[in-house]
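Annex B, item 7. Sequence and structure tokens for protein A, then protein B.
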Amino acid sequence: MKKELIVLILILSVFSIGTSHGQNGESAFAFLRLPSSTHISALGGTNISIVSEDNSNAFQNPALLSRVKETAISLNYMNYVADINYGTAFFSKSASKRAVWGIGMIYADYGNFNQTTIDNQSIGTFAAKDMALHGVYSYALTDKVSGGITGKAIYSVYDEYTSFALGVDLGLNYFDVANNLSLAIALKNIGGQLDKFNEQSENLPWDLQIGLSKKLAHAPFRLHLTGKYLNTWDLSLLRETVNTTGGGVDRKSDTFITTLTKHLGFGLDFIFTKNFYLAFGYNPKVADDFKVQEKKGFYGFTLGTGFDIKRYHLGASVFQQHVGGTTLMIGVSTDLKKF
């Protein structure tokens, strides 16, 4: 069984890398970048190094699933901007002393839209949805190092246009319990479309990420730093600015410092007890991309909490992306063996 699994991993990896290099155009399936749980959302939206009993962390980095030893299930729901309904579900179970497998689903429903002709005559409505099914396997290579792989099937439907893709996530995690230090690296969303929306091929939002989580020895604080979009340096939106000297419009890219900070995500946990935490985060890319010059706000800042009630772990987070787009996420997880 182990030999067959290794062969399958190699086949999926070669296929996904080959298709990712053969693509042209902009990336599709951007919903795969959304946070997978309330804790991840509270830490800025992306984190691949957090070690906890929440199996939905495997959406971020499959190597983290080996840290979850029980039979667990988690459910998360987010009321995203413009009343978009987004949710995740994950089930995991130990396969051996060192191995854990899991299956998860991500779903985004954008609602119904009015369909009109070119002269604005209504001809009905249409719906738009995204979904992805994940199969995850994680193995503890040593007492401190674990690896993982995720295979995912991704499907989108926007009115009469549909697309189907296959993708792979690969991850490693180093966790030193004695020093409360976690280091991680993940290569996410390698793959390609098997069925295109139209004639144009589009990339998956593939991403190289690194992460660090460190709990202070004599204080209830855990610090998180995540590097993301490391496969692409320039993240500028190329905002238009008025050229006061010559009349016209200039295109202005981000400065070096702005670009550097956009590649980072910051998080902080206050761990009061084993069963209760407060979490804060800051996402510089979101803060800069969605800022409105005339409006002040806590763009890019995140806040959340998690606590245990009997057999359940409950969580909630708030994320302000822009002046009109505060999102709320709630979640619940449990160890099924407690029942």
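Protein B:
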Amino acid sequence: MRILITGGAGFIGCNLADACIRAGHQVTLFDNLSRRGSEANLTWLRASFGERGFRFVQGDIRDYPAILQAAGRQEAIYHLAAQTAVTTSVTDPRSDFEINALGTFNVLEAARNARHNPVFIYSSTNKVYGGMEDAPATELETRYVLPDYPGGVSEARPLDFHSPYGASKGAADQYVHDYARIYGLRSVVFRQSCIYGQRQMGVEDQGWVAWFVIAAVTGKPITIFGNGKQVRDLLHVDDLVRAFQAATAQIDVTAGQVYNLGGGPANTLSIWTEFGPLLSELAGRQITPAAWTDWRPGDQPVFVADVSKAQREFGWAPQVGVREGISRLFEWVRNNQGLFA
């Protein structure tokens, strides 16, 4: 299969590319290399597969002619390129809109005008559900819980964009969903929760699991936004890659559908009151935040995905437990400290 991965040198993109190349697909990566770590990820893929193992196009999804040319003969398009930080969207909402909303529209139009009707899978976000203020959280000793959602938040939850990032990703989410109905594009939306794993160059504004691990290993200061009891369900990138593969293999079922993808209720942690002790255990020393500050805009006290629709419709479920996955990430960071100097 001929596959195009936008944002292919990013964290998820390079892991997905690695799996697709190993499976024998003809892979094209489309990336502007603006994100920290993307050049290192590209170098890693070239070291693994050589210059001819895949095709790389340095381009920007805001450049419609460039993405149109890259998409022309593809049989599957995995759209991962994005502006990924809520904080950045607040300070620069125009760029956030141009990348996430207009950029996705460009990739959709390129897919619609491609020679084949490609599978199109879009990485959306749980932020499309907003702050969920109508579902009050209960504060326990180490975490918040949502009594109204014991099995997690399903796709039936109404959308409520909160922050420019939520709005731009949400607009793109809805465009991708609607292109299946209006144009027959074989499109699928993945509303992803907290994805983590190897080759994630997390920073304070985005990729908090990797950032905390990187900070612990390299001695950088950690700041906690809020009280540290916010709960997320964690999904290892290897499990997400399996979801892309399974949804593509069963596109007759998944086309036109939206799926919440996360670790689910079995793979949750509060961002510091529970994650902090695990991090200290892995580091072999006490890890203490350097600072505590205000909550970020639109930050959900709890988000846990109900992943039962994905399991029911295309047989996918998380396999990597949260402790195992974080241990793997910690070892990868410890063995690759040169990437974070």
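Comment on protein B: The domain at 2-340 is CATH 3.40.50.720 (Rossmann fold).
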